[in-house]
Specification:
This protein has about 575 residues and is mainly alpha-helical. The chain has 21 helices and five strands. The protein is globular, with a radius of gyration of 24 Å. The N terminus and C terminus are likely disordered.
Length: about 575
């Protein structure tokens, strides 16, 4: 593989963890599971989760205890959040690229299962968006168009699902595409107006998305010459995925799962030995490319952000076909035709029109201070007040938010050009472009970071991207209240202090029994947690076609192996 203009030698296969490291992993697994269980216990209170209104555990013995003492429930939840994040961070040392002994894929997936199970039975955590999904499904079942009115306006307060929707979205139309309207309708057809059953069914749907992520990430990582276990740690075991896609039930799980799986399937094109180049339109390759494109288009039908993956896929296929402009036009034509057909069918099935386009601006009505453009606009408005110029905050927001979106889009186009010039690998480019677009968009929610984090997890071992993703994950995991609403500052301070005491005590105990350590990597010192050696300091320019074949290539210790399974042996 070409890195920074030079060719690196193949990294040796890592060995299994030694007994001491297995004991360390076992302790971190148990404490992480304890954190998930604490979050599950705390979720019985409206301070610890976005519980239904009224809370179904109110008045119950034992189970209803924390629902009556909200501050204590918040402290329990925050302690759980801290334990999960810290244990994830430390397990990362056992998956660091370049380590001579590394966590196996089986060990990591078992850890993921242990941490996921407690979140399967909680109320929605960190957000009430699940209730919006269910209300949209109820509107579809009743024959109402979610693009024309809000759920509260149509279903009324007497409807159990509409009553649960966050007040900010009760009167706004749905920004979700036709694919998700059909999914939401199916969920409500199964669960009816039963709130708890609806949440559980919705969570099961998103678990399908998580399963697709777990399937696609290691395969894409091998395709990019990266360690699949390291990719799974940063992607699938990511606390943001656990907290927001599993416990929160957000439809990003299905969107990202379809997007990544579609990329992997579409990239499974064969080598045309006669022509001496990649063939996009040859035989079964067309079917694979079309199937992958259809999956990505279905992801676009959930949230339009996934459309960026189609552009990078077209560039990747064109580069393999020879890297000429006609190749790009052919691949873009194939992908565009399949995407238009797929989206057209979804739109006809949903029978709701194209109202989602105008509804895309609805989330921007909330002032998200995580957004650079929004924070800059609000700061400019406050400076105007201090200077006696009046409150022009609304005006500055109206200018800065579209400007931020435009700049984010321009950065994405620039990254596409870098990919076309073979300076950046397409999967990595997708992650960078989505990251820039998210950070500069009018509104940012913590789980939006996963749009960029998962492609980057599969495609990059570079310190600046990996380190940024790790620290942003840790930061975004703790900044939103578990109930997704405003809580008194003093109560938050109390909860944080209790959580710091609990997590600090656990860390002290873990340290006395031994924390995982990183070890030197060939060619340089391994950075703690990020696991990047001094050798890997450039940008991946290209992934040779041989990496997609059964022939090992220099610099890719994880080539696809058709003699064992479709993407190399599972090391368990």
């Amino acid at each position: 593989m070409t890195i920074g203009g030079s060719t690196t030698s193949a990294e040796p296969r890592p060995g299994a963890l030694n007994p001491a490291e297995r004991r360390q992993l076992s302790r971190l697994r148990r404490w992480g599971t304890t954190g998930a269980l604490l979050m599950m216990v705390g979720s019985t209170s409206s301070y610890g989760a976005a519980t239904p209104i009224p809370n179904p555990v109110d008045g119950l013995r034992i189970l209803g205890l924390l629902s009556r003492i909200g501050p204590a429930a918040l402290a329990v939840s925050y302690s759980g959040i801290g334990l999960v994040v810290v244990c994830w961070f430390l397990i990362g040392r056992l998956t660091a690229p370049g380590r001579t002994r590394r966590l196996s894929r089986t060990q990591l997936t078992h850890t993921l299962a242990m941490w996921v199970v407690p979140f399967l039975v909680t109320p929605p955590i960190f957000s009430r968006d699940v209730y919006s999904y269910l209300a949209v499904g109820a509107m579809m079942v009743h024959g109402d168009n979610p693009y024309q009115s809000g759920p509260y306006d149509t279903l009324g307060d007497s409807n159990a699902l509409a009553h649960q929707v966050d007040a900010r979205w009760q009167h706004t139309s749905s920004p979700y595409g036709p694919a998700y309207l059909l999914i939401a309708k199916g969920v409500v057809l199964i669960s009816g107006n039963h709130v708890i059953l609806g949440v559980l069914v919705q969570r099961f749907v998103e678990l399908i998305g998580v399963a697709l992520i777990v399937w696609a990430l290691p395969r894409l990582a091998r395709r990019c010459g990266k360690d699949p276990v390291s990719a799974l740690w940063l992607g699938a075991l990511n606390p943001l995925l656990l907290f927001h896609l599993v416990a929160g039930g957000h439809n990003e799980a299905l969107m990202i799962g379809l997007m990544l799986s579609g990329l992997e399937i579409a990239l499974q094109t064969g080598w045309n030995g006669t022509a001496g180049r990649w063939s996009v339109l040859a035989g079964s390759d067309t079917l694979r490319t079309a199937a992958g494109t259809a999956m990505i288009t279905a992801a676009v039908g959930i949230k339009v952000t996934a459309a960026m993956a189609l552009a990078f896929l077209a560039i990747a296929l064109a580069r393999r076909a020879g890297g000429r402009w006609p190749d790009l036009f052919r691949s873009a034509g194939l992908l565009g035709g399949v995407a238009l057909l797929t989206f057209g069918v979804l739109t006809l099935l949903a029978d709701a029109g194209f109202g989602w386009i105008s509804a895309l601006s609805a989330p921007g009505s909330v002032r998200s201070f995580l957004s650079f453009s929004t924070s800059l606009a609000v700061g400019a408005g406050q400076i105007g007040l201090l200077l006696g110029l009046g409150d022009h905050t609304t005006g500055t927001i109206e200018v800065m938010q579209p400007l931020g979106t435009a700049v984010g889009g321009a950065v994405a186009v620039l990254i596409m050009w870098q990919c076309w010039q073979r300076r950046v690998e397409p999967i990595q480019g997708l992650g960078i472009a989505l990251g820039a677009f998210v950070l500069l968009s009018p509104v940012i929610q913590p789980w939006y970071l996963l749009w960029a984090a998962l492609p980057l997890a599969a495609s990059t071992g570079l310190s600046r991207y990996r380190r940024a993703t790790i620290w942003l994950t840790a930061f975004f995991s703790v900044i939103i209240m578990p109930n997704g609403a405003t809580i008194p500052v003093f109560t938050i301070v109390q909860a944080v202090l209790v959580a710091a005491f609990v997590v600090g005590g656990v860390l002290l105990a873990l340290r006395r029994s031994g924390l995982p350590e990183t070890d030197p990597a060939p060619g340089g010192l391994l950075h703690p947690v990020t696991g990047v050696t001094g050798v890997s300091a450039g940008v991946v320019i290209d992934v040779p076609p041989a990496e997609l074949d059964s022939t090992p290539v220099a610099g890719n210790p994880y080539p696809r192996n058709r003699d064992t399974d479709a993407h190399g042996p599972h090391r368990g």
